[in-house]
Each structure stands twice: as C-alpha cells, then as structure tokens.
User: Fold these one by one.
Assistant:
Number 1:
Amino acid sequence: EKGGWPSFMSKEVSEEPEAIANTLRGRINNGAVEIPELDGLDGLFEGISRIVVIACGTAAYAGQVGKYAIEQWARIPVDVELAHEFRYRDPVIGPDTLVVSISQSGETMDTLMAVKFARERGARTLSICNTQGATIPRESDAVVYTHAGPEVAVASTKAFVAQIAALYLLALHVARVRGTMSAEAIAEQVDELEAVPTKIQRILDTESARITELAHWMADTRSVLFLGRHVGFPIALEGALKLKEISYIHAEGFAAGELKHGPIALIEPGQPVFVIVPSPRASALLHSKVVSTIEEIRARGARVIAIAEEGDAAVLPTADEVLRIPLAAPLIEPLLAVVPLHLFAMGLATAKGLDVDQPRNLAKSVTVE
Ligand code: F6R
C-alpha cells in the first residue's frame, strides 16, 4: 500500500498537494467559498461573538495558523486551546461561542471530551475531521471534513495541511456570511489557495534532495531550534514537534520575537536553527525583523537554515543554508513553509535508521485521556 514509497510518511508527504486540492474541491464556486455542509448555518455564524479552537498536537498548530485567517478575514476573535487544558478550567463560553474542534482521527479522547464539555456549557460545536463518521463529528453540530485520505504514519503531515486549508475555507465562508470581505477580496484568496498544490509540488520536486542531504549531515545533532513570526510561529512549533516525534532529537519552536526574552541564551556555536522568513513583499518590517534575528543568532555562532521565498536575497549573506518556497500571499506561506520541515524530520529520522512510521511510545490515535 506504500505505492513504492519507502514509508507511509514519505508517501503521505508526497500527497500533501492532493490533500489540499481534495479539501478545496466542491467548496469553491466561481471565486466564492460555499461549503455545502454549512448550508443553513448562516444564522449561527452571524450570531457568534467568538470562536474557540480546541485540538491536540499538530492539529492545535493548524488551529493556531487558522486563528490568523479567521481573525483577519472574518473579524471574529479566536482563542486556540489545547483540548486537555480547556476542559479542566472554567472557561467563559456559552451560546455565542463557536467551538471548532480539529482532529485527523476524530477519536482523540481529549478532544472528544472537550467537545462534549463545550456542548454541556451551551456552546455551538463544529468539527474539522479527516475520518468520515468518526466520534467527534458525530458529537458536533456541524462538520467540515478534510479530504486528505487515510493517514497511516503516526506523524501527521498531509492531514495538517488539509486542516489549514479547511480552516481557511471556513474563514472565507464566514467572511462572506458576515460581510467582512468583498467578493473580490475573497476571490483573490481563493485563487491563492487553489495555487497551493502546484506550489507544494514545486517544493517537493526542487528541495527534497537537498533537504535529505542536509538531514544526513545533521544525523548526530542533539538539538534543533525553530523560529518563526506571525503564521510562521505555529509552523516553527510544528517543525519542532515532528523532529521530537520521529527523530527523538530535542527540538523547540519559538516566536522569533521572544528570543531576546530568554531563549537566545541557548544559542552557542554550532547550534542549528531553522528560521522561517516571511515575505518582504507583504511586510518589509516583519521581514527585516526576522533578518535581524538571523544576524543576532549568527553572531553568536548559530548555524542558520532559512526557509525563505524565491528571490529573497536579503537572507543570502546571513543564513548558512536557504531552502526556497514559491511566492505566495502571507497567510498562504505556512502551507508552503511546513513542507521542508516535514521533509527534514523525515530525512533525519531516516538518517538515524529509525522507523519513521511507527515512532516509539506513540499511537496514531490517542483514545485515552
Ligand atoms: C503529531 C501528531 C499528533 C496529533 C494529535 C491529534 O504529528 O500526529 O500530535 O496531531 O495526537 O490527533 P488527531 O488529529 O487525530 O486528534
């Protein structure tokens, strides 16, 4: 069933373009986003005053990326909470709260219990799920399925990008219903989304070999740091989680702006640091801040691997390695920037001779609390 690929994970990363294309399919009509599953829910989307996203692990990082899009496009405040934390506090939620759960399996016990808890508290619930008919969508008022196809490797990859695509569709759908975006502005974002599969394919085609080589050189590395800003921040967290999970290497992701508030003390000569560089076209300010972060850590001996858009020359004199992603709108970048990180984690685990599909101590679906 691996279709000639050495592992399910390598097959599933190769399916990231398709996972997004299939998730978009049938939900875009002439530049407008219309999710058939959400027909009849306009009143709900008009009535809510906030959204709480609940999920665990990689799905929670997808939620953090989604927060930027929902707030920017649909103008609804969003909190992202780990399901197991949400449930054991006394959260302020009620009928004006939409609780959006995200789960590949639809069976994660922590997330399921949080959905039930939210319902008991009177919140409305919507599930983003990859498994038809799973328990979490059955326990929710509405569901938007991701169509990533079955994910077998324990580490989530194609489901992660499909979750972000579904959240973006949801954000644009709600933006239309609430009138927070013009039809033209929505159509522009739709175009950007539809271009993502081809752009990811380009990264897979042009960067895979280099990333595998890089991972081989780094097989003895004991710790890797990941930095990002804005939507690059949750991608840094995702890059670190994948590395811990399948390579058993200590890894941490930070918001780049947080560095000087503590973590920069970790930088010593030779420390590998991945830095996700935002496009200079979207925000020269954000871009220049990340470039100066690279300069600061380089001055302290860090070995910097930058993930930057094609043509961004500012990173060349500062970074040790530059992995390129195609040009895209700012909110689209995380869908591209994560691909080299998935390839890297897989490359490193492979270089260490580990089973990338079945990492130690982990199960694909965590059905206990
Ligand atoms: C990481 C990973 C886990 C899952 C998490 C939630 O690669 O796979 O962090 O994302 O256990 O699982 P689901 O999405 O099935 O609820």
Number 2:
Amino acid sequence: TDPSFIRNFCIIAHIDHGKSTLADRMLGVTGAVADRDMRAQYLDRMDIERERGITIKSQAVRMPWELDGQTYALNMIDTPGHVDFTYEVSRSLAACEGAILLVDAAQGIEAQTLANLYLAMENDLEIIPVLNKIDLPAADPEKYAKELANLIGGSPDDVLKVSGKTGAGVEELLDRVVQRIPNPVGNPDAPARAMIFDSVYDTYRGVITYVRMIDGHLSPRERIQMMSTRAVHELLEIGVSSPEPSPTKGLGVGEVGYLITGVKDVRQSKVGDTVTTAAKPSTEALPGYTDPKPMVFSGLYPIDGSDYPVLRDALDKLKLSDASLNYEPETSVALGFGFRCGFLGLLHLEIVTERLEREFNLDLIATAPSVTYEVTTDDKKTVTVTNPSEFPGGKIASVEEPMVKVGILAPKDYVGTIMELCQGRRGALLGMEYFGEDRVELRYTMPLGEIVFDFFDHLKSRTQGYASLDYEPSGAQTADLVKVDILLQGEQVDAFSAIVHRDKAYAYGVLMTERLKKLIPRQQFEVPIQAAIGARIIARESVRAMRKDVLAKCYGGDISRKRKLLEKQKEGKKRMKMVGRVEVPQEAFIAALSGE
Ligand code: GDP
Ligand code: MG
C-alpha cells in the first residue's frame, strides 16, 4: 500500500470511557467485521479482559475507509489503558502518527486520560479530541468540550461528539482520522526496520509479533533478525489483522501487521525491539527498548502444597505470553513452597494471580505486596531486598525506597480528604491544578510502598469512587525504614515480616499480633505472639493454654462423635504448620495475611 493512503492511530482513554465499544463500532461501520460476526469487545481477546472490561494486551486491526473516492487503510492500534502497562502504551503510541483522545461526556477528563495524553504528546502525535457516550442523559458535552479545549488548545467546536453505543458521529470521526492524521513516512529502499509493539503467545501458532514498518520491506519466507539479540528466525507468515489474520505478500513502509516465526516464547520477540532482515540488516535500531522493570513483589503459594509443581508449570506457561512476569522459587515456614514473583504493578499482580487460579485451576495465597529496597549496612555493603524476610540483620546505615509521581483527579470538594490521605502516606505535594470549574488534579511524590498497600481502596472510599489515580516511577529516596518481625513463641514467622516506616511499625505490630491471636488455636501451653524490630519487642499478645478438661469431655461420649472428631483432627493435621513447637493451621496464616 502507498503510505499516503495509510493512517495509523490509537485510542487513548481512561478505563470505562468506552474505548472498546468505540473500537467495535468502528469495525462494524467500516465493514471490517460483518454484523453477524460481531460480538462485544471483539478486540479484547482474553476472557479475563472481557469479563473485567479491561484491555491487557494491545492489538492492531486494519480497516478500509473511503473518503472522496479514495480508499484508505486505517490501522487502529489498541492500547492498554492502565498505568501498570505504561511501557506497552508508549510502544503502541510510537507506532502511530495520531491518537483519538476519548473522554466520557458524562465524566470528563480523568487521571489516565491525562497520563496517556502526555505520553501521546511526547510522541508528537496528532490529537483528535472526542467526547463519547453523548447518548447518556447525564452527558454534558458543552461543559466537557470546553474542558478538553482548555487542556489541549483549540476551540470547543473542534471536539467531536460521538456515541460508540448508537454509532452517532462515528463516520465523521473516521473522516477526521483521514483528514487530520499525517500519513506515515519512511524510506522504502533502506534496509528493513520494523518496530515490535506487541507480541502475544498463541497455543497453536506460537508467538505472534505485531510490528509497525518504518523503512524497507519484509517478505514471506525471508530470514529476519531481532536487533537487540541478533537472533535470526525464519518468517513463516506475514500479514495483517483485518481483524482476522490474513497473510499478505509482505509489509512495506508505514504498514502495520503481524509476523509468525514459530518461536514459542515471547521473550524472543520483545516489545520495543527492532526487526530487520538477516540478508541486508540495518545498522541502526529504532529508539526505545528498555526492559520493563518489576515494581511490586509478592510471594505466591499454593494453598494445597501438592499443587507446587502445577504452579511452577503454570508460571512457565504464563511467562511465554507475558515477558514482564518474573519469578523464582521461595520457601516459607508459614506457607511452604512457592514463588517470589515480580510484577509491573498491582493490577498486574491481580491479573496474574487471577489467570493462574482460573486458567490452571489453582488456589493461591499471595503475601503482602512489597517493593524493592536498597539496604546499605554499616560495613558499606548494599543489598537489594524484594522480600522483607531477607532484610539484613545487624546495623543498617541507610535504606532507599522507590518513589513515584502520583496524579489524582477528583471533584474539588474532596481536596481536603485526599490531602489528608496522601500526607498519611508520606506524600509531598508537588502541585495542584484546576480543570474546568469543579475538578482538580493533585500531584504528589510518594513512596511506592505506601501505594501498593490498599491506597487505591482508601482513595476510592474517601471520594465516593470519584477520584482517579495514575502514577509513574520517579527515582528512589532514603527513609527511616525498619523491618518488623512477627514471632510465635520466639520463632519468626517469615511471611509476616514487613518493611515499614518507623512511625508505622507499632501500628503494624499491633494489627498483626491481634489478628493472629484471634486465629491461632489454643495449644497445651501458652503461646506468646510478639512483634519486634530486631531484638526489641514492640507489641505482644498471647494465646492462653488449652484447659485440660476440654479433651476429657469427649471420652465417654458417644463413640461415633469421638471418631468424627479424630478424623477431623487427622484431616486438619495435614495442613498444620509447625512454628517451633506451635502447631498452626495454614488457614490461620492465610486469613491473617488476607485480613479476613
Ligand atoms: P473501555 O474500558 O474504555 O474499553 O470501555 P468499554 O468500551 O468497555 O465501555 C465501558 C462501559 O461504558 C460499558 O458498560 C459500555 O457499555 C459503556 N459504553 C461505552 N460506550 C458507550 C456509549 O457511547 N454510550 C453509552 N450509553 N454507554 C457506553
Ligand atoms: Mg476496553
């Protein structure tokens, strides 16, 4: 295809503002998907995406559109809207010349709208502002058109008003994509360069790599080379998604399509990498490959210990489709054998856990999420700690924790309560900005460790659900952090160790000792439950010894009841964990960890 008849664009939006619905509507309006084949959220392939209504992996689709007698190829690249996947969003944006900025006409701008808009502007994309859901009775397009125009410049009259649901305004929007978004430019005679903006694992076909051609041409059966690793693969198939995969005679400048090489592991096909040909390789890779770094760590343990091999296998399989997932074996006194896993963020953690449980039929317990600490001891050694139980003993010189820049958008009535929450989480206010008459963006720097633990829940409940949140990494800072251990009869229970700010150590100690006191069954002897920083005890509870006559009662009673009791006890034994001399049912640990 002649690049002047190609338009590459994406839709950026806050979650739930209607991106998937609009994308579906575009597939219908352009005839890319026949009405009878249409199903809701056509592009969101994974079940979990459809159910939760979020897009996890981006997908690309090609649609024909005619304007003034000329047929254009519109490539729509779907991007994940959530902060955890910022890296994937930015790679998708780099594959486009323009972006539709989609905003719910009953909600206005939200935190993720802003975060993604800034990314789009950094990539020099042409922005087309659009208000969606104008069919809603609560829609206020006039008000929010002004808000949008204020944000990106231009007149409120330039803001298109559409409904992905009814289809109103969608044809005009497609016309505007053709008129406003620049066509791609590149050198057709140069060595081939294609940017990988997504790669997905398909059980039948192996890895499917989505690329945007920058220069040159790729043809079927050519040998291709990944520029970061120099690995060479045979090209088994090349084509475009329209939206079902259809093989083509190749891809040229500006085109968006897919490659299949028979490779089985997405790590061989990294998002952000440059593809060239083995015969005539390019010498200069396209900008922008960095490995996304895990930000949040958690131990994942099978509730039934015999599921450990299944969990290992499941993680290996997930890794094929999710290169950003990290894991290594770990053992815990309280929880047995499991894996320490690294995630891009909290949503990523949730999605991975849910996929493991659902797709591999596992019951899992996750330890409290932790971030990465750089701990320097008095003898000048620095260790990286992602698991609190590995926090070095002895004298500590300093501890560094990761920081994030946080943006919170909310109606202005909630400013007070949000500030209170952020200050309580050691946030430092960076700035505050009004959008329209009644909404404010608050910007903070905050320790990531303060956000991974129920921050979002608190934010939502304090603002009746009106606040939205976005964050990005922003270096590291030293802080007065300590490790709090929880001890049962003097023995440390690893899964409960936590790294917290000194000011919050006492509160954590009290919370955990009280929880465990309620959950640990009585033993033959008294069991002290303590919270400690090093050798210093900061909180203490105890489980009193069992009274002797409790057992005595069973004897002499009816025999079947006694047998039942004994059987129950045997069953329970299987799941008992020994901490020193103390017998604790695993359920108690799980309940204490999940705060139930
Ligand atoms: P996404 O998270 O941005 O992909 O949003 P979805 O497309 O999944 O839409 C979120 C919710 O808004 C769904 O319940 C949709 O049915 C609804 N929705 C999307 N577009 C419209 C629209 O134009 N009008 C109305 N009334 N509802 C819409
Ligand atoms: Mg969606």
